[in-house]
Amino acid sequence: MIKAGIMGATGYTGAELVRLLELHPEIETIFLDSRSYEGVRFDAIYPNLRSKVEDICRSINVDDVPEDTDIIFSALPHRVSQSKVLPLIKRGFRVIDFSADFRLREATIYEHWYETKHLDDRTLKKAVYGLPEWYADSIANAALVANPGCFPTSILLPLLPLLKEKRLHNKEIIIDSKTGVSGAGRSSSEVNIFSQVNENIKAYNIGKHRHTPEIEQELSLAAGSSVNILFTPHLIPIDRGILSTIVISAEGITRKDVETCYEAYYEKAPFIRILKEGYLPETKAVKGSNFCDIGFVIDSRSGKLVVVSAIDNLLKGSSSQAVQNMNVMFGLDERTGLDTAPIWP
Ligand SMILES: NC(=O)C1=CN([C@@H]2O[C@H](COP(=O)(O)OP(=O)(O)OC[C@H]3O[C@@H](n4cnc5c(N)ncnc54)[C@H](OP(=O)(O)O)[C@@H]3O)[C@@H](O)[C@H]2O)C=CC1
Ligand SMILES: CC(=O)N[C@@H](CCC(=O)OP(=O)(O)O)C(=O)O
């Protein structure tokens, strides 16, 4: 069995990871780290895991992580995560980091967007961006995998094939994303207040969301030249899910071109579902799963290609994508422990 430890296990993504690892046939979870719930049984915090996860949370000092731990997941907030991950990497552990601390390849860009110093540029350069549909070979041998952000996952998966195949003549890319409230995490009380979220929809951080450089970094690498986006996130009153609607010029592109392009990259990708003409993604159709659904329309009146994607932010947007990465790192079938159908309604 692969021995796994989780730092920050009591957050939303940590708890989803605990649930997934409980179902995983090759994993034994050996520690659940928490500052706030030291000595508390995990299922006393998360009632959905009653009688399933009875382990006691412990506040783990990185120096005390057992030598025989095979993989450590850090589900800590960004800025905090790097301070724990770096000593673990130094001790020779393999780590999957959920935070943004190792996703941006340039420390200066990280420091600008996250307004904090990066503590180790050399380790940053060695980290592998954990989008398994694109970087599986590097992930397989990585010591440190930077699990992508939730919005970036929903945006990169539909756009990367089109950019890689130079299908977009005009690189003006306008993205409208909608996210459920769990995207803000369990501890963000301000965003989570029922009366502010319920029956409300709002745009935020237009043109300045911290996922912008992450998305542009990966799109530019695929395109082989600099790509800029206009990204508008919205907070909507659902628990989980992200729907991204991406508008690009359809100049010189047919439906067949787009289909062929997606087929070439995703035919063997078990978690990408390209929807047939007449169907479009919806958040509920991926809820509770590692799927990313992608559908598109070519609108001849406006001359635009409109691509829509849906993921579960806590799963393909973080915890199940991390398990998919772990499967790749340990040479397992990437579907191991993840081969479930979404829940509906
Ligand atoms: N929510 C989402 O949809 C996604 C989240 N992510 C990333 O995953 C990571 C975890 O996110 P999420 O689970 O939503 O966050 P939560 O706020 O739900 O959980 C984070 C946990 O980290 C622990 N923690 C330890 N030190 C600190 C600290 N100094 N400040 C605050 N919390 C601390 C807390 O647990 P305790 O007090 O018990 O130690 C807390 O429950 C973040 O880096 C986030 O950016 C990535 C993709 C999607
Ligand atoms: C609703 C909400 O607030 N969502 C978060 C993004 C979610 C996320 O977790 O992204 P990281 O992995 O980069 O932290 C936001 O917009 O900042």
UniProtKB/TrEMBL annotation:
Q: Where in the cell is it found?
A: Cytoplasm
Q: Name one GO cellular component term.
A: cytoplasm
Q: Into which family does the record put it?
A: Belongs to the NAGSA dehydrogenase family. Type 1 subfamily.
Name this polypeptide is given: N-acetyl-gamma-glutamyl-phosphate reductase
Q: Name one Pfam family in it.
A: Semialdhyde_dh
Q: Where are the catalytic residues? A: C150
Indicate the segments forming the Semialdehyde dehydrogenase NAD-binding domain, all copies.
3-142
Alphabetized UniProt keyword annotations? Amino-acid biosynthesis, Arginine biosynthesis, Cytoplasm, NADP, Oxidoreductase
One GO term in the molecular function aspect is: N-acetyl-gamma-glutamyl-phosphate reductase activity
Biological process terms from the Gene Ontology for this record are:
L-arginine biosynthetic process
What the protein does? Catalyzes the NADPH-dependent reduction of N-acetyl-5-glutamyl phosphate to yield N-acetyl-L-glutamate 5-semialdehyde.
Q: What is its EC number?
A: 1.2.1.38
Q: In which pathway does it act?
A: Amino-acid biosynthesis; L-arginine biosynthesis; N(2)-acetyl-L-ornithine from L-glutamate: step 3/4
UniProt entry tagged with the keyword Oxidoreductase? yes
Question: Which gene holds the coding sequence for this protein?
Answer: argC
Coiled-coil regions listed in the entry: none
Q: Which reaction does it catalyse?
A: N-acetyl-L-glutamate 5-semialdehyde + phosphate + NADP(+) = N-acetyl-L-glutamyl 5-phosphate + NADPH + H(+)
InterPro entries with a match to the protein in the record: AGPR, AGPR_AS, AGPR_dimerisation_dom, AGPR_type-1, NAD(P)-bd_dom_sf, Semialdehyde_DH_NAD-bd
Entry annotated with the keyword Amino-acid biosynthesis = yes
Superkingdom of origin: Bacteria
* CDD domains, alphabetized: AGPR_1_C, AGPR_1_N
Which organism is the protein's source? Tindallia californiensis
At the top of the EC hierarchy, this enzyme's class is oxidoreductase
